[in-house]
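Long-time lurker, finally posting.

We've been working with Phosphoglycerate kinase (Ehrlichia sennetsu) and I want a structural starting point before designing mutants. I don't trust myself to interpret raw outputs, so I'm hoping someone here can both generate the structure tokens and explain anything notable. Sequence follows.
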Amino acid sequence: MVDVEDVKDCRVVLRVDFNVPVNQEGLITDFSRIAVVLPTINLLLKNGCAILLLSHFGKPTAAIKEKFSFERIIGQICQFTGLDIRVVSDLSNELLLRQGEIILLENVRFFAGEVENDSKFAMLIARHGDVYVNDAFSVSHREHASVVGIPQFLPSAMGLAFLREYQELDSAATKGTVAVIGGSKISTKLPLIRGLLKKVKMVILGGALVNVILRSRGYNVGKSMCEDCHCDITLPELFIPFDFVTSHGVEDQNFHFTDARMIPHNEMILDIGPASLIAMKGILSKAEKILWNGPIGAFEFEPFCSGTHELARFISFLTKNANIKSIIGGGDTLAAIKSLQEPCFSYISTSGGAFLKFQEEGTLPGIEAIKKCKV
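Top reply, 14 upvotes:
Generated this for you. Predicted structure of Phosphoglycerate kinase:
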């Protein structure tokens, strides 16, 4: 594995994540995924490199390919970064990359060999570079050619953003950590929960995924969102809320605070209850680190956002005033903290599925590919 600081005076194939959200007018609404890779790009330019950028954009199909072309948004990317970047779609001829030049390959998912991790496609890209750098931790749980294929042919390095994410997440789950896991589906979080229970001090569950456990224990969950599966984990290291906010639906403002054993048949669990929230705060205040992924209620709807927003405020408070390290991740979690006026978290991960996969397995295909790269 190569140190990115030592990559100088060469052609670099740089995997980034420019899969940015775009509105109906074709305008990028959030540039954070672009901003996070600028330190690596600027470092490579400072070191006299030429750069071939690789990224996917959306989920293109043959029918809607044009919608996900980088040609549609490259002007906005250049304006935001202050860099001169041109898009190319053909790699059959050698790219004559000059020092300081940046080229962005058209959406890698336009090429069949990307998702299939075709070695010929990976080799085709690799011949346009001398070193491969991955600065897209968020896609490194996928075994695609631009993630795991190219390192077979080039010396490889972790980009600056990738390296920080790896280091932060690698040290997140310890015996002093309290993990808060929320969300709607326990089936997608169960491997994560089981893995964390072996490593951390306590796991707190919230959101609709709790409903499966309640029903599996014989409790009535009314009309609550609930997956059709059985799961009853009973361990002292696992905290399950014991009271909830219930209502007839997300549009019904006539809500009640209800004990877990007394959920009405015609109502839904939509948020954590006040007594459970107090108990949760007590557990969190004794943590050395806090790892949070997923909302603990229907945070998109008033007043059922209260539990998630109060959790965010409390973790932010502990980070700022109690010297407790906090690491948060997940798209819904990041959306939930936007309500905070001055959020204070030690590290905010934007890696989504890769965040979860890393906590489950302790590594990712993209990490292993770099470690085993051709040197």
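Before you design anything, note these points.
Residues 100 and 200 are 46 Å apart (CA to CA).
The chain has a mean pLDDT of 93.
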